[in-house]
Amino acid sequence: MSENIRDVLSELIDSYGINILEDPDRLSQFLEDRCALQAEEAFHLTFALRYLLKCGWRVNSARAVLDEEQEERLCQQLGFTAGQSKEVAALINGAVADKYEDERPSGEGFVATPGNLRRISGGISNRPRTMRMRKKSLYNGVILLAAMLVLGVLFFQIGSQRTPVGDELRIAFFAPMSGPEARLSHVQLRAAQLAVERINFQGPLREEYKLKVVGFDLPKDPAKAVASVKKAMKDKSFLVMMLGANNGNVAEIARLAESIEAPLIVISPTPPGEEELMDAALPYLYTFSLVNDAKARGKVLSYFATQALHKKKIALYYDSSDKLSEETYLSARKWAVGFGAKTVAELSYNGKKESGHTAAMRAIFESGADLLIIPGTGKDSAKIVSEARAAGFQDTILGEGYTDKTYADAGEALKGSWWVNEVSALDPPIRSVLKEYRSLYNENCPPEDVMAAILAYDGVRWIAAALQSTPGFRGEAIRHTLLATKNLPLTHATLTIDPRSHMPLNKAMAVVYCAHDKGIFQRRIRVNKD
């Protein structure tokens, strides 16, 4: 439930002291969690506090209360409107005023009257006239030095800020462009460029800018990967980073994104692990993922199995050598019980070793299960389905990652099976994008790469929507806009970001049904909150 930002700010100051205003990162986390409906006001407040702190403002200083000159400076330096600047100043001044109201002594103020002033020995005439002049000169010198220091800081900040070059808003795309994952990375880069072409064709962003994406090779070695990204991002014209195929460098690049204050969008078809996106108990401030994680996938599988297919006795068969498959299995097992079903069989196999599945399928058949769930990427699903049918299991099968290759490998064995995909090439809007891909590049997108391509395509669309509405181009401003994403229509789903994890919140997934053999797209589903 969202709360009023003024009340929340007052409670935070009561709990943590007035100095919480000097820790905008911590304050931002509190406000994001409790003031979801006032995300824009929370961003403006923390954005302004960071700027003021860099300029020397402190809550205990004599000028803690903002005046009209400081309000005007917020408009000039941060791109605020006059109304936004006044709202921010009112929030800060209200908090500071409350603090000093508590410290001010009660009663009437001191009034100077004859008889209550302390006598100065020797009278004023005995004070040397040069003393005041020396103090005044020293005071003026200190003020001048402080002003020069503030100007120096401001010029440094302006020089270090990311800003467009000419009429271009640039995105840096990092992925392994050489080695075994090069083909997938090039497909993603092409899809990202297709999105750029489509967005620019619709008209300039903010009525003056066009989008541009530039690809960079990402080495597999973590140290070399960080050095490569750091070198590329020295160019201040790159406003946002995209990370393609996950080759194990997500955590390192997420930490780098924090230090250079540049948002990072992860579009890998293999979702990053929770530990890769989290800094201790909180997510990295500048890193976001467009992909459902294993927990969300497992929950959707169990929800569809129990609430749509009405199955009560479930068997699970997963790849123990694949982290995504195993984590999805654990989530599916947990939620199957939560949705009222019973797991009657839980078996695993090692996908890195060549082995058959006949014995496991026979055991599942004998368990009395009325549904077999196969969590994971789907690379072994066709073989598993074929061997399940051969072992006598004729009940419903629910898997992940259906593609045309699944049908080519399993054929009629797919009859009666259901599939849940993050992205499906059978989804009409996605088929339209794939048609444009073929038209632009004169070749089809490989079936096994459709998910990666669409995630890259929608990743660019997400960034474009953020750049369109962000006040200014500072990384902090873009980060807050990405964090406030709610009900953004993309090609493969409608996107809302969970501020607690920086990952999609209850994002829908595509359902495919094989009535006879080849799959047919049905609809997108999400877990009903009720």
UniProtKB/TrEMBL annotation:
Pfam families to which the protein is assigned, alphabetical: Peripla_BP_6 (PF13458)
Matches recorded under InterPro entries: BCAA_transport (IPR051010), Leu-bd (IPR028081), Peripla_BP_I (IPR028082)
Gene3D superfamilies in UniProt: 3.40.50.2300
Keywords: Membrane, Signal, Transmembrane, Transmembrane helix
Domain Leucine-binding protein: 169-512
Transmembrane segment boundaries: 137-156
Membrane as UniProt keyword: yes
SUPFAM superfamilies: Periplasmic binding protein-like I
Family the entry assigns: Belongs to the leucine-binding protein family.
Descriptive protein name: Leucine-binding protein domain-containing protein
Organism: Cloacibacillus porcorum
